[in-house]
């Protein structure tokens, strides 16, 4: 599995950066990070995000209006991408103003981490944990203990 994470802003906060790096270290899947800096508009950010991902990627946007998935459903989605989409997936995380309409339209799937608003830099860490959790679910590892 090859994962591209394209996100607005640079992760500078030491605690968040440390958590991000910890989950990245645990992942056996290949991960590429592209941090995009743009402060003009969601449409400019959107173009930069879309330009930063491989064309063949299955595109997933992280958006507050996206589908709420369980960790098991998320792992099933990634398994499907691995089998049916050559294992290449890209996640896009917008900035404070969200994602542009262009990104939303091009995304093949849109997911949410709930209806609450999360800081976009924190969403990056939450995604990393869920990627690791999905990897462990697919391996049958007990890291994920369903209630």
Describe the structure.
By secondary structure, this protein is of the alpha/beta class. It has a single domain (2-139), classed as 3-Layer(aba) Sandwich (Alpha/beta knot). Helices cover 43% and strands 24% of the residues. It has helices at 14-26, 42-51, 71-84, 101-106, 120-139, and strands at 2-8, 30-36, 58-68, 88-93, 109-112. The chain has a 5-stranded parallel beta sheet with strand order 2-1-4-3-5. The longest helix is centred in the C-terminal third of the chain and has 20 residues, at 120-139. The protein is globular and about 45 Å long. The model has no long low-confidence stretch (mean pLDDT 91).
CATH superfamily: SPOUT methyltransferase, trefoil knot domain
Please provide the count of β strands.
5
Cα gyration radius (Å)? 14 Å
CATH topological fold name: Alpha/beta knot
Distance between the termini: 28 Å
- How many DSSP H or I helices? 5
Fraction of residues in β-strands? 15-25%
Q: Which CATH class applies here?
A: Alpha Beta
Question: What labels would you give this structure?
Answer:
147 residues; 5 strands
Summary, kept brief:
By secondary structure, the chain is α/β, with parallel strands linked by helices. Helix content is 43%, strand content 24%. It contains 5 helices and 5 strands, in the order βαβαβαβαβα.
């Amino acid at each position: 599995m090859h994962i591209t994470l394209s996100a607005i802003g640079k992760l500078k906060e030491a605690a968040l950066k440390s958590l991000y790096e910890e989950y990245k270290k645990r992942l056996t899947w290949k991960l590429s990070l592209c941090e995009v800096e743009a402060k003009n508009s969601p449409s400019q950010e959107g173009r930069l995000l879309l330009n930063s991902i491989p064309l063949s990627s299955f595109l997933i946007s992280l958006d507050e209006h996206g589908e709420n998935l369980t960790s098991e459903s998320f792992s099933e989605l990634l398994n499907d991408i691995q089998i049916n989409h050559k294992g290449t997936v890209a996640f896009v995380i917008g900035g404070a103003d969200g994602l542009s309409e262009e990104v939303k339209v091009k995304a093949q799937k849109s997911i949410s981490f709930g209806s609450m608003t999360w800081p976009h830099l924190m969403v990056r860490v939450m995604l990393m944990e869920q990627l690791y959790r999905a990897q462990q679910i697919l391996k049958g590892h007990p890291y994920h203990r369903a209630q």
